[in-house]
């Protein structure tokens, strides 16, 4: 029974360490996809067909990568301070 609790505790601790990083990829993908569809919609409204889609897709990518790097640095600093 003690071995089972030990394995369960290790499993929980590993998820506590990895948990904050799990949503970062989703945030990156969501920012790119949302900006892509916003650019596509604006292109349809303004008649500037691939220009805004491309610009906003890159902008979403840069914003997503910036957020990914910033969050990773903050999480690593928090982990070091503990």
Protein architecture, described:
The protein has 82 residues and is mostly helical. It has one domain. Helix content is 94%, strand content 0%. It is built from three helices and no strands. The longest helix has 33 residues, at 49-81. The chain is elongated and about 65 Å long. The protein starts with a helix and ends with a helix. The mean pLDDT is 89.
Mean pLDDT, rounded to whole units?
Answer: 89
Total strands: the figure is 0
How many domains? The number is 1
Gyration radius, in Å: 20 Å
The structure class reads mainly alpha
Low-confidence sequence ranges: none
| Major sheet summary line | none
Concise overview:
The chain is mainly α and 82 residues long. It has helices at residues 2-22, 24-46, 49-81.
Topology (SSEs and partners):
Layout: H1 2-22, H2 24-46, H3 49-81
Characteristic terms for this protein:
82 residues; mainly alpha; 3 helices
């Amino acid at each position: 029974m003690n071995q089972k609790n030990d394995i369960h505790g290790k499993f929980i601790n590993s998820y506590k360490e990895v948990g904050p990083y799990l949503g970062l990829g989703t945030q990156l993908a969501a920012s790119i996809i949302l900006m892509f569809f916003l650019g596509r919609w604006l292109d349809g409204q303004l008649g500037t067909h691939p220009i805004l889609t491309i610009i906003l897709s890159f902008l979403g990518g840069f914003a997503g990568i910036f957020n990914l790097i910033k969050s990773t640095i903050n999480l690593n600093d928090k982990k070091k301070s503990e």
